[in-house]
Design goal:
151 residues, alpha/beta, 21% strand, 50% helix
Length: 151
């Protein structure tokens, strides 16, 4: 493992902590991806547009992604305070017609990742068939090891 990726989850830092400890143990650089759904992006963009109008200025889309990256960075700084791990945060927006798993796989490919850490949900086989399963899609389509923490 030289370049692992962990999918940031703002509700659970346990996976981030585990990925950081493993990355530190093998002296790997950990890439943390902060994802935004298309809806989250639109809502943040609309709020930013209101602020821009009041300030008589404009902001581009990168400001929205940067805010998501800042949140992940703040959490990582707290989680890794006692861990000697080399890490960086990348932001990614999930397109309207794109699955979260597809976007994670794209980010992994763009960053030459060799291991993926993700959270998953316990679902019945029927639930997976009907609703899909992000972890399952990544496990089946990523060309490398995947570590999943079930919630």
């Amino acid at each position: 493992m030289d370049n692992p990726l962990v999918v940031y989850d703002d509700e659970n830092s346990e996976l981030l902590e585990e990925a950081g400890e493993l990355a530190a143990g093998v002296d790997a650089q950990l890439t943390i991806v902060s994802l935004m759904t298309a809806e989250e992006f639109r809502e943040a963009r609309e709020a930013l547009d209101v602020v821009a109008q009041e300030e008589h200025t404009s902001y581009d889309d990168s400001v929205v992604i940067d805010a998501a990256k800042r949140q992940a960075s703040d959490t990582a700084e707290d989680v890794f305070a006692d861990t000697d791990v080399d890490w960086r945060v990348v932001g990614a927006r999930i397109g309207d017609n794109e699955s979260e798993a597809d976007r994670i796989l794209e980010v992994a490919d763009e960053n030459d990742v060799d291991h993926v850490f993700i959270t998953g949900q316990k679902r019945s086989p029927t639930g997976k068939a009907v609703f899909g399963d992000r972890a399952q899609a990544i496990i089946l389509n990523f060309d490398g090891p995947v570590t999943s923490l079930l919630g």
